[in-house]
Amino acid sequence: RDMMYTASKYDEAAWAIRYPRGRATGMEVREEFQSMEIGKGIQLREGEEVAVLSFGPIGKYATEAAEKLAKEGIEIGHHDMRFAKPLDTDLIDEVCAKYDHIITLEDGAKMGGLGSAVAEYISEKSDRPTLKIMGIPDRIVEHGTQEELYEEIGIDGTGIIETVKKRILTKV
Questions:
Q1: CA 147, CA 155: separation in Å to the nearest integer?
Q2: Cα gap 94→104, rounded to integer Å
Q3: Is the distance from CB of 161 to CB of 132 less than 8 angstroms?
Q4: What dihedral angle (degrees, nearest 10) is formed by the CA atoms of 98, 104, 105, 109?
Q5: Residues near 125 by beta carbon (within 8 Å), at least 6 away in sequence
Q6: Three-state secondary-structure class, residue 78
Q7: Span 121-151, pLDDT tens digits
Q8: What angle in degrees, to the nearest 10, is found between the helix axes of 157-170 and 59-71?
Q9: pTM: predicted TM-score of the whole model, two decimal places
Q10: Range list of β-strands (E), 20-146
Q11: Which domains are seen in the chain, by residue range?
């Protein structure tokens, strides 16, 4: 709602707003609309060592994974990027300075998606964290429910937890 409201007030460029299936998490339903700062993501959770940068409603799996990992004593950061373009490079700089590992999570194609944009941006940094891009691979994915497909390609809550643990335990 706030994204639509913000777009309706901005007349300097065209907008594309994606309406994927499913529901987003962390959304507060309010009576009044609020403008969003264009091109700025938000921090949803503070963490240590590993940060997830999510894009779209698939971020709910990062939220679930963070809660489960916290019960095991593993605190991960979670940031909702909110905009594909412009990319929030200030937020990425903050994440790169604080975390050893970044995981990007999106329900779109890995190739040319958020993860690719983050990889391109941080490739110029001399002291950068490791990066794992989680999204839809560049191959035909079988039919099924979103949950079944996300599980198959490892971008559901369980896949995120396994990826986080691998990053922390193997330091890669």
A1: 9
A2: 15
A3: no
A4: 170
A5: 96
A6: strand
A7: 999 887 889 999 999 998 887 788 889 999 9
A8: 60
A9: 0.82
A10: 42-45, 50-55, 77-80, 101-109, 130-136
A11: 39-170 (3.40.50.920)
